[in-house]
Amino acid sequence: MQDDALRTRFFLGSNSPVGFVGRFDRLYDPLDGWRAFLIKGGPGTGKSSLMKGIAKSVGDAGIPFELVHCSSDPNSLDGVIFPSLKCCLLDATAPHVVEPKFPGACETIVNLGDHWDHAFLHKHYKEIIATSQACSALHERATRFLAAAGSLQTDTYRFALECTDTAKISRYASRLARRELGPASDQMGKESIRLLSAITPLGPIFFEETIEKLCPRLFVIQDEHGACSRFLLAQLRSYALAAGHDIISCFCSMSPHDKLDHVLIPSLGLGFVTSNSWHEPHLTPYRRIHLQRFTDTERLRLKRQRISFNRRAVRELIGEASSRMLEAKAIHDELEAFYIQAMDFKAVQQRQADLAKRILSGS
């Protein structure tokens, strides 16, 4: 990409204690005029390369875009979003299958299976199935490690919550929202769901440069245990939406349905982000919020040995999960090799050029 200023990075799914969790269903709104190109095909068929190529073509035209990275292979893409065009490209295959709601009218299926050699793939069906199953088994092992880590994190969170003055946080959130977000509006803001961090074969990855690009005015919330920040961010999210601001809610990959890590408000250049040992922004904050003032630290100190044990064990377990994911990626590369041999990539490149023209023309 020639202009990094046009590019932001996110995840839309991650390996978690309950397996892969994706938020692809919340990515685009057909009722708001969005178009989605749903890419189908196997591993190694050029889905990610096609999306990277189209992102470059659109970016070269000066149009901002979001890259959605794959948590199982961060060098690959699961999607590209062009917010100003109300258009997106998605890898719509497992484990994040997306099917059209309004086919043709809002979604277009891009089937890269049109360009592979069926006979070659069928000839190797036994190897393909065995390799795919071996890869899935390693991902299942990774999930078990993450489930154990998640259980210990929940244990620590519950200790911390017992020592948290939620009423005091509510009063602080109200004052902060009044000062930074303004009064309630007649029209609710819109919410986009993203992840800024994920557990990957390379360990935890955190796209802090996205925060820097979108939110120069930054409130950094220091919270290692997650109780205070979860409560504070949930309230700030509600206040921001009520004030009519469009927001990006970034959830925790270890608790992807209910734990907010960050709330970004690009229209205000304002961000509220959590800082802990898993994702510590190395950015200059406008203000740093230390949450000890909302915590009974003496009471929490009574659990310090248990919390310290949990922290060490979680780090080991997540490390083991990443190792299994790295093994799975190596096997997935073997699976891709079959499809690479079967593909007509010249035809895929032509498909890429046609799609880029179509997106830029709005047709």
Automatic annotation (TrEMBL):
<keyword id="KW-0067">ATP-binding</keyword>
<protein>
    <submittedName>
        <fullName>ATP-binding protein</fullName>
    </submittedName>
</protein>
<keyword id="KW-0547">Nucleotide-binding</keyword>
<dbReference type="GO" id="GO:0005524">
    <property type="term" value="F:ATP binding"/>
</dbReference>
<dbReference type="InterPro" id="IPR027417">
    <property type="entry name" value="P-loop_NTPase"/>
</dbReference>
